[in-house]
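User: Before I run my own analysis I want an independent prediction to cross-check against. Here's the chain; please return only the structure tokens and, at the end, one sentence I can use as a sanity check.
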Amino acid sequence: PTYSRKLSRVRCNVENSSTKGEPEPRNALLKIAWYGSELLGIAASFLRSPSPSDVENDLKLATDGSGAAELDRATVVEAIKEDFARSYFVTGNITLDAYEEDCEFADPAGSFKGLRRFKRNCTNFGLLIDKSNMNLTRWDDFEDKGIGHWRFNCIMSFPWRPILSATGYTEYYFNAETGRVCRHVEHWNVPKMALFKQILRPSRVGRRKSGG
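Assistant: Structure tokens:
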């Protein structure tokens, strides 16, 4: 058990370092769009008050009260699946207890550390969306991680009503000492630039509205 915990710490540290060492995206526009979306979400949070359904208390894990330092893997996985049912990517309704506070969140465009920042980004992104649908289509368990395969689509609230649609999977790396997620790595089956183009493309609804 001690060896496994040391191995997990080394794995998380090595992977965190490797993420930082990755070269900058070849297309600078992608990087601008990545940070721009975060800033746009922050701006939206000031311009629009969240509805009562958007505001939820921090979700906590149900524990047995034993005070054990290490969480049961099955409990954490179940919390992640429940978060998918709440479309946590666009609502921010995430079970905080299932993650380390300094958890790394990464996708093909970049990465950062901080659970609260991730929750804030997800909540703010949701303010830019009128309708969304997110489904967990498959879950795979491995020794040090779980992989959730998902399908996502949404209609954004911009005047031209763009539609985003994608599939992908997220890797959830578990800290062997605490049982919590220490890395959350998204993989999109649609290239990020293709998603960016989807944002710029008016939907049929948007074209009808603009045309009167």
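Sanity check: The beta strands are 99-107, 110-113, 129-141, 145-156, 163-174, 181-188.
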